Amino acid sequence: MGVITEKTALPKVKPVKFILNWGRRYSLWVFNFGLACCSIEFISASAAKNDFIRLGVIPFAHGPRQADLLLVAGTLTDKMAPVINRLYEQMPEPKYVISFGSCSNCGGPYWDSYAVTKGVDQIIPVDVFVPGCPPRPEALLHGIVQLQEKIKNEDIQEKFRSGTSAVS
């Protein structure tokens, strides 16, 4: 039997990090915040032809308290901005956001309107932007895969580290 030296040793694998990230990555519950025509594209992305359930994404959470992923699809107006902020705050950690469509990314063709928010990222942090007007269902699938890659590489300790402790 050979002796394992430093050169032949396997790289350090963090199995707990791998298992936790794998579980979070393939069990995303989506809370859809459909505001306009992009929400119809979201519905077609969850249909049989595109079927993002095969990626481990459950399309409809019962509410924000059961959701991991907030999908904002459509034109976000200034009147709806506090609502989406409240829904985002109700989601448990870890939480992710996908901005779906040009209107939610930057205001779209209505960017010059006095009542349209110039992007969801001005209200809540966004993890993945899916461009298009309206974006194709395949673009949403690609955005979900990009989010899953981000979750795969996350450091769980960094994600939950904060300045205050819950236990005194």
Question: How would you portray this structure in words?
Answer:
This protein is of the alpha/beta class. It is built from 6 helices and 5 strands; from the N terminus they run H-E-H-E-E-H-E-H-E-H-H. The protein has a 5-stranded parallel beta sheet. The C terminus is likely disordered.
Topology:
Layout: H1 15-25, E1 28-34, H2 38-45, E2 57-58, E3 69-73, H3 81-90, E4 96-100, H4 102-106, E5 128-130, H5 137-152, H6 156-160
Parallel strand pairs: 1-2, 1-3, 3-4, 4-5
Helix pairs in contact: 1-5, 2-5
Extract low-pLDDT stretches: 163-168
Which band does the percent of strand residues land in? 5-15%
Largest sheet: 5 strands, parallel
Helicity level: 25-40%
Radius of gyration: 19 Å
End-to-end gap: 52 Å
User: Could you state the order of secondary-structure elements as H and E?
Assistant: HEHEEHEHEHH
Strand order, sheet with most strands: 2-1-3-4-5
- Looking at the structure, what is the overall shape? globular
Structural class: alpha/beta
The number of helical segments is 6
SS elements, strand count = 5
| Average of pLDDT | 79
Summarize the structure.
By secondary structure, this protein is α/β, with parallel strands linked by helices. The protein is 33% helix and 13% strand.
Features of the shown structure:
168 residues, alpha/beta, 5-stranded parallel β-sheet, 6 helices, 5 strands, disordered C terminus
